[in-house]
Design brief:
Helix 6 runs antiparallel to helix 7 and helix 7 packs parallel to helix 19. This protein has a two-stranded antiparallel ribbon. A two-stranded parallel ribbon has the order 3-4. It has 19 helices and six strands. With 457 residues, it is mostly helical. Helices cover 62% and strands 5% of the residues. A hairpin with a 2-residue loop joins strand 1 and strand 2.
Length: 457
């Protein structure tokens, strides 16, 4: 097949080099953006008089026909073409003759590729944003269903203080809301049109870049033609956003894996999102959560690959930049896949409140509240802290918890202990007293739920 760049080079490229150079196997997914961008370009060429209006209309009708045939399956993408841009142009020229050859006027593949990629990733950001919102909805559902369930909160994976299960879940909601903010910011910087920058220096034709940008939904045009064709910051930024999303999903996965184990038994994951063992019939494996955790490293790798590709490139376009697409496409596909399985996995999981509360009671996580009780009675904090530690040690020796240690034993340590002690150190009281904004009290959790709902409007 004839190369679009044939002319300067007369010799044949080897088949191995052709395969090495080809990108159509992965950039063909941008065919809608490529054709839509070309239709806007043809309209601009006609409006500015660079082409006649009849020629522009013919190009637009021809491109519409190519798009419809691809979408219906009447036309198949030819993988022997170098890239999707070459394929579309060759099909169009085959159908329209010399008029088709005029489409590329005042345009280079350099700015065309950059345009298609921005348009494609813009739509992917919108889809990922919707998927994150679905996951936030699942988290809200579980938080509202288990609003008053008490569990142990952890530091160093050691039981620390009692919290509400809903409070713990809403922590992930806050992470995901930040992810939405980052994606919105990323989309804003992505939504700048490079078309019209041409190869690197602009063009001698009297183009209207802003007309073309507006038709394609862009907010602005690239201010510098060199930057317009060589900028892939938007890919790096998107990959960074996606790596952060995966980090949050991985942390959540780790807790779902722990919580669903026999050692914790805080939750049960639906059979629809677990697997069994080929040899151990009792097993119920949290494979979807484990795969999400595992795929996080893959997205991290995509980010590092992009940064490494770009780090030494001189201006403007270099063929190295063809490596941008596989990395960013892989990250986009991976994040979408993980989010699609994660939301229903969270939506359908079942909490086990009795086990959570039992773990909370057994971990002496109301010891801080015991010390605070003594402080309120007038004992210095350090003295109260030491005394509480001694009481915990006795409970451990005797197989008791703070709530079951007899009152007479407390009085041996201090006469400050009164009849109100057990009410003050109950887990419900400990949680309810955390009234500071953002804390784990029920009122605070309800405020957090309302906040997340407002952010999703």
């Amino acid at each position: 097949m004839a190369k679009l760049w044939a002319g300067r080079v007369s010799g044949e490229t080897s088949s191995i080099a052709d395969d090495f150079n080809s990108s159509i196997s992965f950039d063909s997914r941008m065919y809608v953006q490529d054709i839509t961008g070309s239709m806007a370009h043809a309209a601009m060429l006609g409006a500015t008089g660079i082409l006649s209006q009849k020629e522009a209309d013919t190009l637009i009708d021809g491109l519409q026909g190519v798009l419809e045939d691809l979408q219906s399956g009447a036309l198949q993408i030819d993988l022997s073409c170098e890239d999707i841009h070459m394929f579309v142009e060759q099909v169009l020229t085959g159908r329209l003759g010399d008029v088709g050859k005029k489409l590329h006027t005042a345009r280079s593949r350099n700015d065309q590729v950059a345009l298609d990629l921005r348009m494609y990733l813009r739509s992917e950001v919108d889809e990922i944003t919707g998927l994150i919102k679905n996951l936030l909805g699942a988290i809200l559902h579980q938080a509202e269903e288990n609003k008053t369930v008490i569990m142990p909160g952890y530091t160093h994976l050691q039981r620390a203080q009692p919290i509400l299960f809903s409070h713990h879940l809403l922590c992930y909601a806050m992470m995901l809301l930040r992810d939405l903010d980052r994606l919105r910011d990323c989309r804003k910087r992505m939504n700048v049109s490079p078309i019209g920058c041409c190869a690197l220096a602009g063009t001698t034709y009297p183009t209207d870049r802003r007309m073309e940008a507006k038709a394609l939904g862009f907010d602005d045009v690239a201010k510098n033609s060199l930057d317009g064709v060589s900028d892939r910051d938007f890919c790096v930024e998107l990959l960074s956003c996606l790596a952060t999303v995966m980090m949050h999903l991985s942390r959540f996965s780790e807790e779902l894996i722990l919580w669903s184990s026999w050692e914790f038994q805080f939750i049960s994951l639906s059979d629809a999102y677990t697997t069994g063992s080929s040899i151990m019939p009792q097993k119920k494996n949290p494979d979807m959560a484990e795969l999400t955790r595992g795929k996080t490293g893959r997205v991290y790798g995509d980010l590092m690959a992009m940064l490494t590709t770009l780090k030494g490139l001189p201006l403007a376009y270099n063929k190295d930049m063809q490596e941008d697409k596989e990395a960013v496409f892989d990250a986009v596909d991976t994040v979408k896949m993980c989010l699609k399985v994660f939301a229903p996995m969270v939506e359908t999981m079942t909490a086990k409140p009795e086990n959570m509360k039992k773990a909370a009671q057994g971990g002496f996580i109301n010891a801080t509240d015991l010390a605070d009780y003594l402080v309120k009675k007038g004992l210095p904090f350090r003295s109260a802290y030491k005394l509480s530690g001694q009481i915990v040690a006795q409970c451990i020796r005797e197989g008791k918890v703070l709530e079951t240690l007899p009152f007479s034993e407390y009085q041996k340590y201090s006469s400050l202990f009164g009849e109100d002690l057990y009410e003050e150190i109950s887990l419900e009281t400990c949680v309810g007293k955390r009234i500071s904004e953002g804390g784990t009290s029920l009122a605070s959790v309800e405020a957090q739920i309302d906040y997340v709902k407002q952010m999703l409007v």
